[in-house]
């Protein structure tokens, strides 16, 4: 259920994105955001992300050939051609979160956002919060392990916390549907990978911390620090 493609001038996004270098034409129209070169559409911004198995920088030429007008890279690629604009950033993941929030006009500022993190109990807590809010007549949105819901419309969800561009798109749709409150599960993975970076959390809740996901975080201290990012970064 993506936002309809539309043109936004890069000049409207330029002042808010954190970057170290820029190459190209500032007066460039962009139609959407992608981090997957296989689904790039003409006029899209393509953000190259260094993943655990793949590096998006390997697929920049493919994205440009598919019509990406603007690219965001962590490392400049010599002799790269065919793009209109290019930003060099420190972190592709953080840049994806930043540019997505900017592109969708900071939708999380337009409703009350409740974030719930913890090893166990996130889903139950989100359902309880949502039920309380709906019982007093609020129009709610919900995001989590089970599904995503906007008002009464159920949307399938592949991740507990979607990738930042998908998340901001969902928030934009919630604003369009005049949602007043959004309750969401916030996984430690999403916090560590900057998927919720730039989200305007009004309320942050912590359920508990027990031994889990150490294959990703390495140790309990790192796991705890990832959880605490929800509170340190909340506005």
Question: What can you see in these coordinates?
Answer:
With 235 residues, the protein is of the alpha/beta class. The chain is built from 8 helices and 13 strands. The protein has helices at residues 11-14, 60-65, 92-103, 122-135, 164-176, 188-192, 214-217, 220-232, and strands at residues 8-9, 21-24, 29-30, 32-34, 44-47, 70-73, 85-88, 112-117, 140-143, 148-150, 153-155, 181-185, 203-206. A 6-stranded mixed sheet has the order 11-10-9-12-8-13, with helices on both faces. The two termini are 28 Å apart.
How far apart are the first and last residues' alpha carbons, in Å?
28 Å
What's the β-strand tally?
13
How would you describe the shape?
A: globular
Tell me the series of helices and strands, N- to C-terminal: EHEEEEHEEHEHEEEHEHEHH
By helix and strand content, what is the structural category? alpha/beta
Output the radius of gyration: 18 Å
Q: Output the strand order for the largest sheet.
A: 11-10-9-12-8-13
Mean pLDDT reading: 89
């Amino acid at each position: 259920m993506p936002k309809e493609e539309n043109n936004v001038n890069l000049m409207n996004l330029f002042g808010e994105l954190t970057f170290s270098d820029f190459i190209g034409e500032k007066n460039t129209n962009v139609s959407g955001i992608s981090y997957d070169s296989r689904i790039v559409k003409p006029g899209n911004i393509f953000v190259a992300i260094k993943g655990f198995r793949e590096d998006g920088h390997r697929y920049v030429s493919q994205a440009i050939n598919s019509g990406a007008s603007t690219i965001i890279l962590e490392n400049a690629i010599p002799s790269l051609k065919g793009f209109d604009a290019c930003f060099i950033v420190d972190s592709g993941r953080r840049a994806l979160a930043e540019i997505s929030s900017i592109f969708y006009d900071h939708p999380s500022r337009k409703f009350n956002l409740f974030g719930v993190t913890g090893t166990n109990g996130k889903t139950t807590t989100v359902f309880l919060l949502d039920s309380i809010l709906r019982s007093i007549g609020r129009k709610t949105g919900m995001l989590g392990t089970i599904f995503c819901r906007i008002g009464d419309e159920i949307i399938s969800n592949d991740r507990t916390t979607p990738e930042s561009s998908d998340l901001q798109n969902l928030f934009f749709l919630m604003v369009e549907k005049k949602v007043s409150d959004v309750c969401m599960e916030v996984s430690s993975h999403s916090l560590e990978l900057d998927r919720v970076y730039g989200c305007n959390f009004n309320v942050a809740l912590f359920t508990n911390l027990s031994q889990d996901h150490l294959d990703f975080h390495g140790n309990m201290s790192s796991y705890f620090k990832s959880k605490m990012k929800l509170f340190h970064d909340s506005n």
